[in-house]
Amino acid sequence: MTWHPVRSGGIYTIQVDTSASFSTSFIVQQTTDTTFVPLINLPIDTIHWRVRCNSGIWSQKDVFIIQNDSVPLIIPITPDTLLAGSSPVFRWCSAVGATNYRIEIDSCGAILTPYTISFVADTFFSLLTTLKSGRYSWKVSADVNFNRYSITDTFWIVPSSAAEWNKNTLPKVFALHANLPNPFNPSTTIQYDLPENCVVELTVFNAQGRLVRRLVTRAMPAGYHRVEWDGRAQDNTAQPSGVYFYRIRAAGVGDNRTLYSLTKKMVMVQ
To answer: Any idea where the FlgD/Vpr Ig-like domain is (predicted)?
Structure first.
């Protein structure tokens, strides 16, 4: 959990709860940092959290979902990340209740025995085996019979010169572009630029500030991205004409941990 600092500084109080009213607040923590990592396993549920500085007003509450059947991948990330060198580093998010992980790396299109590394206690792994240039897929499973799998992502092992070419074509700055078309009926496309690998949340809100749809909630590679909103809510119900807002929040996964946040307005006319 990460937030922007208050200019005057102070003590931040974080509340975490499964209730939107924060009636139980099973985590109440104070810190001078702007990042908080729970030291206990969170329940499999919708988790609400908010923060305030000193005795000021609470921030707008935010939510995320803990699922028992996923192991989100972080690095490398799709689509088809280019990696220079032959011994990549893999990183993923922890799964609730897991103490060990198994990584499976396979060569796409080649008849080779997949690399399988079991009993990895941490959430990152440096592959010591040299990989030849080419396209690979990878996935992670958590213990408890290893029946909780991540999605399968892909990456390329390429010479350093190819990776440098790809780096030079990446966006120089973070950007959230105007949706097209606007006004729209019933769908529109949103484009955003990431100058570095980020964990991204792209959401749509109505004019009353209520969450309508989560369009992106995952790690994304540096590059130019676009996503379509079909004018429907999270439960697939069609939304009425009116003013809507789309907001992107992104956190870099590198050493900088740069934070980005932008909001724009769009209009649906039916």
So the answer is: 188-250
Nearest to 154 by CA among 142, 171, 136, 172: 136
DSSP 152-174: PEEEEEE-HHHHHHHHHTS-SS-
Strands 153-158 and 81-84: parallel
Which residues constitute the domain of residue 240?
175-268
CATH of the domain at 105: 2.60.40.10
Residue 20 sits in the same domain as residue 102: no
For residue 85, pLDDT over 80 is answered with no
Q: What does pTM read for this prediction?
A: 0.46
pLDDT tens-place string over residues 107-130: 765 555 667 777 788 877 877 777
Going by pLDDT thresholds of 50, 70 and 90, the confidence category of residue 162 is: very low
Residue 230 domain flag: yes
Range with the lowest mean pLDDT among 13-17, 143-147, 225-229? 143-147
Domain count, the chain: 3
Confidence of residue 164 (pLDDT cuts 50, 70, 90): very low
162-171 LR contacts (CB < 8 Å, sep 24+): 162/82, 162/84, 163/82, 163/83, 163/84, 164/84, 166/82, 170/195, 170/222, 170/223, 171/195, 171/222, 171/223, 171/224
